[in-house]
Every structure is written in C-alpha cells, then in structure tokens.
Amino acid sequence: TCDTGDQQTTAAVQLKEAAATIVEGLRDVATHEGEDAVFECRLSQETAQDAQWFLGDVPLQSNEMNEIRVQGTRHSLTLRKVTLEDCGSISFKVGQHSSAA
C-alpha cells in the first residue's frame, strides 16, 4: 500500500509455483516372472500434485499389485510378482513432462 495522505493505492503480490520437471528419468527393468519390478523417477521439487504412473495407456493406482510411493522428490512404482502380461511400457507423467521405460 502507498498512502500519501489524501490518496492511497494498494497492490497484491501473487506467486505461481514453478512446474515440476523430471530430473532423473525411468530406466528399463528386466526381472523374472514372479519377482517385483521397481521403477524410480526423480523430480525437481517435492510438491508435484499431478504425477501419474501408467502401464501402457492404463493409469495405475496403489493396490495389492502396485505400490506407488513418494519420498521427497523421488517417485517409485513397484509392480509386485510380475507376470508376462505386465510386459510393456511403463511411463511416469508430471505436468507436460514424461519418462518411459
């Protein structure tokens, strides 16, 4: 606020959070049927709200077959006891950025 006595003007400061980027992408994983496959990705910041994992085009959620974890800037996906049907592309997307393995 600027106040000169007879006049006053006010302005506000608004900040937009910078979009997260992928600083360490996914790597291919080779494992045996029945074992776990773990994928990891590291982001530029911790507060990425729109991060999503995919198997092919199917979005994944944490459940008894998939474990999705976030520890700081590190995002990980564990596919438990993989089968031949789990073979394919795994991707991680955040904002306009993506990585695949």
TrEMBL record:
Cross-referenced InterPro entries: Ig-like_dom_sf, Ig-like_fold, Ig_I-set, Obscurin/Obscurin-like_Reg
GO cellular component: cytoplasm
Keywords: Cytoplasm, Disulfide bond, Phosphoprotein
Occurrences of domain Immunoglobulin I-set (ranges): 22-94
UniProt key word Cytoplasm: yes
Compartment(s) where it occurs, according to its Swiss-Prot or TrEMBL record: Cytoplasm
Residues in the signal sequence: none
Top-rank taxon: Eukaryota
Descriptive protein name: OBSCN protein
Species of the source: Cardinalis cardinalis
Phylogenetic lineage: Eukaryota, Metazoa, Chordata, Craniata, Vertebrata
